């Protein structure tokens, strides 16, 4: 039983750290998060970071996080989220 309690505490700490990290990224405009909805229910998200590639000498988008809930997988939602990110005009972020 103590192992479950310590795991729960660890999860709560990680959730708080994650929320703080995401809030800081959004406040500093380091990244954008796009959320997918199906029938007014959140079903996934993608987090994109805007950067510049010295190799291609152009602005770039880094897809760092992509999540789709289990009940919504295999329905093309992840593909749509990635496609949305791919089609973003990245010049406005530079």
Concise synopsis of the structure shown:
The chain is of the alpha+beta class and 94 residues long. It has helices spanning 2-27, 77-86; strands at residues 31-38, 41-53, 58-68. It has a 3-stranded antiparallel β-sheet, covered by helices on one side.
Describe the structure using short key phrases:
Aminopeptidase, alpha+beta, 2 helices, disordered N terminus, 3-stranded antiparallel β-sheet, 94 residues
Describe the structure.
With 94 residues, the chain is α+β, with helices and mostly antiparallel strands. The chain has one domain (2-93): Gcn5-related N-acetyltransferase (GNAT) (Aminopeptidase, 3-Layer(aba) Sandwich). It has helices at residues 2-27, 77-86, and strands spanning 31-38, 41-53, 58-68. Strand 1 (31-38) and strand 2 (41-53) form a beta hairpin.
Number of helices: 2
Spatial strand sequence of the major β-sheet? 1-2-3
Low-confidence stretches: 1-5
As for the number of domains, it is 1
Percentage of residues in DSSP E strands: 25-35%
The count of β-strands is: 3
Architecture in CATH? 3-Layer(aba) Sandwich
**Global geometry:** flat
| End-to-end C-alpha gap | 51 Å
* Assembly classification: single chain
Determine the fraction of residues in helical runs and give it as a percent range: 25-40%
Can you lay out the helices and strands and say which pair or pack?
Elements: H1 2-27, E1 31-38, E2 41-53, E3 58-68, H2 77-86
Antiparallel strand pairs: 1-2, 2-3
């Amino acid at each position: 039983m103590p192992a479950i309690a310590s795991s729960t505490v660890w999860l709560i700490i990680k959730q708080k750290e994650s929320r703080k990290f995401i809030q800081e990224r959004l406040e500093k405009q380091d990244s954008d998060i796009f959320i997918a909805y199906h029938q007014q229910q959140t079903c996934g998200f993608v987090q994109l970071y805007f950067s510049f590639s010295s190799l291609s000498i152009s602005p770039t988008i880094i897809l760092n996080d992509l999540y789709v809930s289990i009940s919504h997988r295999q329905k093309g939602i992840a593909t749509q989220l990635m496609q949305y990110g791919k089609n973003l005009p990245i010049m406005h972020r530079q």
